[in-house]
């Protein structure tokens, strides 16, 4: 019997959404493990490019099923699910035209095992004999996965669709660091604990020996990857800094930019918004240094601060403790005044494993057993939600991957990162920043993000050189050249990704202003935040529709927030973590 045939429209949609999500979990087993779905813990994702077409065809099957549903038969929550699922599938299918471009280049200094090796252990359950066995099997399969990645990269060389050298030239050093003394020692660590001895008992020696063999094979493969990068890929790397140097590169960038921003916006418009934002923030900075009675430029002000040891935390452990204290003591107590039904879930701060970025946030588990983790880069002292909501699983969990865009399932970066930047702005309203010096820390980060709009479009659309981008950056933000280089190389590697922050923040502010104007005394800020976070990641255009619907409901007095729903989306934790830049 056809199950879809006997369900109502809402049930049919839920079934399609569930089948789609389960397909994704099977296809992306490492992500599945992170979501506490353990049935694929002995598997790794295939990077074989011959799978691309069949995946696109499967997505088309799901999309066809979605389109058979009559929208008029759906309730309000299902209507949003319908639009998001259709958007996700359509975006993926439309992106297939670019499969010979970005998706053939999975090896970069920013993503994958090499970018954060300890995360493989941190995300993997190691409580039973089967857990340890699955971990070994997964490591045993990693050489094959790297073979697939190299084969894809060889095809990219053949098509002349390679990345620039700055996207890969750190990989050999990363491999050297990881394989020092002939072993990927960190992967052995789980087997050298008292817990392993207890769980594995009489099998400890055999399992440890098998893991050592898997380790040696992985070391051999990683050294092969290093040789491939140095001797095959880099000599054939793209000469242009931006992807406009590829055939059809300009159109590729336009599509990639829209993939990341979920806006029908041109590179010229993004560039102009960036210039305008840089100018606005610069004016705010000048107001602050005037209040502080400082005579000089903004950059002079930051140089003065950098020479004052009282503004610097050089000790790594002290930095981590300070950041954790800010979360616990300054931020958490204020959140109930700004957010409805905010959960009391753990967030911890740890050092990053690599020196590639300021940091990253890895969401924890829904039950709080694995805390959300903010990995912060403390090697450089100058680097200063609805998981429980009643929503389909695919709306609560989206896999983050930038290198494959625009041929990947969108994770609505402009919503997620836009919320993060909006949360930094909220810090002013919440009184998080204790004085003008901390406020200048916020502005230094905000102008940093505004510059990204200019730099990303400059590199990939207007043909800027790397040096020109670094020079522009250095005119407005106070960091050392190596920081600027690492950031610029990130933008070169991930076209469009860095634009989501500012564009998302601007859109959320616009929607708040619109709601405030239309609702007047009926406007409720925690309620506004609730409707954004409860619904989870979506395109900015759909988010506007959701807010418009919320406004209309309140005006007609039909609004009834979902009772007892707790916001626990990864994005709501960003509202905590977004403030931490004030010490960077």
Q: Describe it for me?
A:
The structure is a single chain. This protein is mainly α and 584 residues long. It has a domain at 3-243. It contains 23 helices and three strands. The chain has helices at residues 3-6, 9-27, 29-34, 52-67, 76-95, 118-122, 129-159, 171-178, 194-200, 204-233, 249-261, 267-291, 298-306, 316-331, 393-396, 413-430, 436-460, 466-476, 481-493, 500-519, 525-535, 540-555, 570-577, and strands spanning 347-351, 359-362, 372-376. A three-stranded mixed β-sheet has the order 1-3-2. It is globular. Mean pLDDT is 88; it is low at 379-385 and 563-584. Pfam families: DUF885.
Radius of gyration: 24 Å
Q: Strand percentage, roughly?
A: under 5%
Which descriptor suits the 3D outline?
Answer: globular
N- to C-terminal distance: 60 Å
List the strand order in the largest sheet. 1-3-2
Please count the helical segments.
23
Helix/strand order, N-terminal first: HHHHHHHHHHHHHHEEEHHHHHHHHH
Provide mean pLDDT, rounded. 88
Count of distinct strands: 3
What structural category do the secondary elements indicate? mainly alpha
Biggest sheet record = 3 strands, mixed
Unreliable residue stretches? 379-385, 563-584
Helix content: 55-70%
Chain oligomer state: single chain
Pfam families: DUF885 (PF05960)
Features:
584 residues; mainly alpha; 57% helix; 2% strand; DUF885
Briefly say what this structure is.
With 584 residues, the chain is mainly α. The protein has a domain at 3-243. It has helices at 3-6, 9-27, 29-34, 52-67, 76-95, 118-122, 129-159, 171-178, 194-200, 204-233, 249-261, 267-291, 298-306, 316-331, 393-396, 413-430, 436-460, 466-476, 481-493, 500-519, 525-535, 540-555, 570-577, and strands at 347-351, 359-362, 372-376.
């Amino acid at each position: 019997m056809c199950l879809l045939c006997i369900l109502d429209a809402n049930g049919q949609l839920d079934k399609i959404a569930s089948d789609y999500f389960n397909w994704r979990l099977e296809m992306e087993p490492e992500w599945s493990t992170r979501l506490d779905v353990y049935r694929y813990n002995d598997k790794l994702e295939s990077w074989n490019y011959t799978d691309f077409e069949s995946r696109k065809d499967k997505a088309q099957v799901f999309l066809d099923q979605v389109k058979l549903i009559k929208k008029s038969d759906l309730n309000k929550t299902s209507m949003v699910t319908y639009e998001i699922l259709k958007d996700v599938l359509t975006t993926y299918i439309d992106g297939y035209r670019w499969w010979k471009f970005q998706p053939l280049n999975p090896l970069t200094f920013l993503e994958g095992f090499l970018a954060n090796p300890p995360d493989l252990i941190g995300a993997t359950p190691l409580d039973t004999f089967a857990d340890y066995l699955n971990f070994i099997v997964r490591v045993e399969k990693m050489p094959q996965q790297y073979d697939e990645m190299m084969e894809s990269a060889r095809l990219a060389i053949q098509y002349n669709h390679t990345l620039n050298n700055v996207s890969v030239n750190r990989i050999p050093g990363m491999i050297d660091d990881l394989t020092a003394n002939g072993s990927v020692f960190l992967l052995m660590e789980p087997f050298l604990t008292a817990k392993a001895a207890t769980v594995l008992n009489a099998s400890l020696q055999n399992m440890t020996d098998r893991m050592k063999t898997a380790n040696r094979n992985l070391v051999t493969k990683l050294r092969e990857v290093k040789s491939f990068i140095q001797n095959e890929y880099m000599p054939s790397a793209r000469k242009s800094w931006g992807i406009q140097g590829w055939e059809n590169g300009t159109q590729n960038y336009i599509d990639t930019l829209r993939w990341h921003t979920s806006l029908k916006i041109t590179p010229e418009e993004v560039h102009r918004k960036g210039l305008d934002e840089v100018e606005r923030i610069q004016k705010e900075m000048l107001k602050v240094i005037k209040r502080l009675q400082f005579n000089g430029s903004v950059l002079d002000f930051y140089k003065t601060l950098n020479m004052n040891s009282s503004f610097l935390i050089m000790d790594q452990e002290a930095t981590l403790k300070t950041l954790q204290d800010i979360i616990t003591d300054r931020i958490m107590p204020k959140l109930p005044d700004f957010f409805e039904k905010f959960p009391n879930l753990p967030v911890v701060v740890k050092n990053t494993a690599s020196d590639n970025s300021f940091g990253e946030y890895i969401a924890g588990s829904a039950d709080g057993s694995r805390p959300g983790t903010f990995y912060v880069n403390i090697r450089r002292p100058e680097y200063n939600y609805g998981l429980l909501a009643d929503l389909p699983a695919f709306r609560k969990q989206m896999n983050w991957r930038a290198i494959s865009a625009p041929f990947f399932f969108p994770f609505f970066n402009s919503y997620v990162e836009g919320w993060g930047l909006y949360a930094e702005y909220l810090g002013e309203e919440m009184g998080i920043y204790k004085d003008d010096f901390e406020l200048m820390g916020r502005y230094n980060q905000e102008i940093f993000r505004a510059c990204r709009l200019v730099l990303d479009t400059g590199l990939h659309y207007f043909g800027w050189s790397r040096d020109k981008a670094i020079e522009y950056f250095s005119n407005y933000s106070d960091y050392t050249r190596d920081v600027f280089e690492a950031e610029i190389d990130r933008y070169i590697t991930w076209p469009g990704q860095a634009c989501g922050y500012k564009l998302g923040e601007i859109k959320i502010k616009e929607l708040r202003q619109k709601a405030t104007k239309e609702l007047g005394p009926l406007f409720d800020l925690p309620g506004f935040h609730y409707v954004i976070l409860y619904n989870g990641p979506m395109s900015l255009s759909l988010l506007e529709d959701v807010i418009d619907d919320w406004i209309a409901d309140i005006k007609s007095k039909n609004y009834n927030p979902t009772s007892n729903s707790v916001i626990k989306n990864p994005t709501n934790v960003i509202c905590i973590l977004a403030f931490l830049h004030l010490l960077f």
